[in-house]
């Protein structure tokens, strides 16, 4: 793609780094910005930079947060003795939009996947176990993608919790095996949360 300005070219190259954005779409976005007021574009750029610089992660659940503790953990109206374990922040957002879950979360930051070189140590599993011990959690519900890596992760964590009285469940298989949690429709996801199963039943 031949562009008449290196400034334009640099901006297009930056947008094209984003997932799902090809060179043509990047050019369309950049040309759109070019039509906006200088102040608006400056605000746009600063918002992105500030988000990246200032965003924090909750010290308790590893969700995205504006402070040390996220708004979900700080909410006393929610059942803090019920923890939903998810792979990433997008899953928290997906479950929150069902409005069917009133507990807290724990974001693992990934999933056990030996083929990709991801082991338990790279995930926030230790902090989950010590959190359950300390907070005397009553129930842990796994909401992981229904695939081999998800099952492996559930199995591993469940074994680590065997000595604790915490009830361990998983969301029901409303979502097809091999599917992706974040792409499920809200109804399927809501039903899955409502019909969670004891994990022993699930792993078998
Ligand atoms: Zn939190």
Automatic annotation (TrEMBL):
Entry protein name: Recombination protein RecR
Domain of life: Bacteria
CDD domains per record: TOPRIM_recR
Keyword Zinc among record annotations: yes
Function comment: May play a role in DNA repair. It seems to be involved in an RecBC-independent recombinational process of DNA repair. It may act with RecF and RecO.
Family listed: Belongs to the RecR family.
Membrane spanning residue stretches: none
Chain positions of all zinc fingers (C4-type): 58-73
Coiled coil: none
Residues covered by the Toprim domain: 81-176
A Pfam family of this chain: RecR_C
Annotated GO biological process: DNA recombination; DNA repair
Gene name of the record: recR
Keywords carried by this UniProt record: DNA damage, DNA recombination, DNA repair, Metal-binding, Zinc, Zinc-finger
GO molecular-function term, one example from the UniProt record: zinc ion binding
């Amino acid at each position: 793609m031949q562009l008449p300005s290196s400034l334009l070219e640099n901006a297009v190259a930056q947008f094209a780094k984003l997932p799902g954005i090809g060179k043509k779409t990047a050019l369309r976005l950049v040309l759109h910005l070019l039509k906006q007021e200088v102040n608006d574009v400056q605000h746009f750029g600063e918002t992105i930079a500030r988000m990246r610089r200032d965003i924090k992660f909750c010290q308790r659940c590893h969700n995205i947060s504006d402070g040390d503790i996220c708004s979900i953990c700080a909410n006393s109206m929610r059942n803090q003795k019920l923890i939903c374990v998810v792979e990433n922040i997008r899953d928290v957002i997906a479950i929150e939009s069902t409005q069917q879950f009133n507990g807290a979360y724990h974001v693992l930051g990934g999933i056990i996947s030996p083929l990709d070189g991801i082991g338990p140590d790279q995930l926030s599993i230790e902090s989950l176990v010590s959190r359950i011990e300390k907070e005397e959690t009553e129930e842990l519900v796994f909401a992981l993608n229904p695939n081999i890596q998800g099952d492996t992760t559930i199995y591993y964590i469940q074994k680590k919790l065997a000595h604790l009285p915490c009830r361990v469940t998983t969301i029901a298989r409303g979502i097809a095996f091999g599917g992706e949690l974040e792409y499920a429709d809200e109804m399927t996801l809501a039903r899955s949360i409502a019909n969670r199963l004891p994990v022993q039943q699930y792993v078998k």
